[in-house]
Amino acid sequence: MADEPLILGIETxxxxxxxxxxxxxxxLADALASSVEEHARFGGVVPEVASRAHLEAIxxxxxxxxxxxxxxLADIDAIAVTSGPGxxxxxLVGVAAAKGYALAAEKPVYGVNHLAAHVAVDTLxxxxxxxxxxxxxxxxxxxxxxxxxxLARGVTPLGATIDDAAGEAFDKVARLLGLPFPGGPPIDxxxxxxxxxxxxxxxxxxxxxxxxxxxxxxxxxxLKTAVARWVEARQRAGEPVPVADVAAxxxxxxxxxxxxKALAACRANGxxxxxxxxxxxxxxxxxxxxEQRAEKYGIRxxxxxxxxxxxxxxxxxxxxxxxVAAGVAPSRLDLPADSALPLTTVxx
Length: 348
Ligand code: KG4
Ligand code: ZN
Prior knowledge:
The chain is α/β, with parallel strands linked by helices. 45% of the residues lie in helices and 18% in strands. The chain is built from 13 helices and ten strands. A five-stranded mixed sheet has the order 3-2-1-4-5, sandwiched between helices. The longest helix is centred in the C-terminal third of the chain and has 26 residues, at 243-268. It starts with 5 loop residues before the first strand and ends in a 23-residue tail after the last helix. Belongs to the KAE1 / TsaD family. It is found in: Cytoplasm. It comes from Micromonospora acroterricola.
């Protein structure tokens, strides 16, 4: 609706410079500049390289988003920006830019949580999120299960990874299979030609003895080590590594655990909506398995399209829009870039 507020969102927490513009739940622009290729040869994101790339990209990306949406800065009602968590130097670029634009154009500014934004982005595709919902957040830096009772004011963490994040496991396993960084997309691709039942890789924290203390927690480091040992044994024996089968079997282990625990959280809390967000939510097997298993319990799975799952500015704008609609007060102009912003803080 034309009378809903026009919100601009800025994202710079990792290696993507994103500026998105939304009106209510309608996406008008989603401009993105990625430094991922500059990090590829290091096999992971280099913070200094990311910060510099954000500095170079932020103004052109901002201009591109405004022109894509056909609006000017003066038309914007509020600016939202990722305040944390993320890389300190990278976050600073976005926060400083948001403050500059907000001050120059006399607009309110909302410093928001990157992880809550990964949940909020789904509203751009599927409309308002029924609350309470369970959210499964799986990215390169985080893997968490949350109870979302009021996305504008706070979420309740149910569990999280005790070691590697799910995306990190994809990136590390891809590396040992000789696949490029980031590892999620090439593993997803390879796995399509592989047999997911070829190798029985471990499912971390699913044994009865672990469930008592870690019902909704995840562990992917043992899985990563098991894949490494399996591949090394093959190589030592002088046998070829069946990359597609390893990729499929590894991916199956991750998706099995993620969907089992997320659906258990829904059922234990009597919740009928599961929303999945973060870069790993782009995984085709995770999406299919979640849908297939949820159907049995009458649980609705909401996953945004892959482009909205990985980091972008639209997700920040979507959360900003939700905060404005809920009547949450803007942040102070001295809002921080907080690399360790807790999951429970939706806006600063
Ligand atoms: O949310 P995101 O873009 O950035 C962070 O906040 O971390 O997530 C990036 C992560 C990377 O680890 C990448 O390998 C993973 O998401 N990823 C995927 C897929 N696409 C991206 N993992 C599995 N399957 C995919 N299709
Ligand atoms: Zn992210």
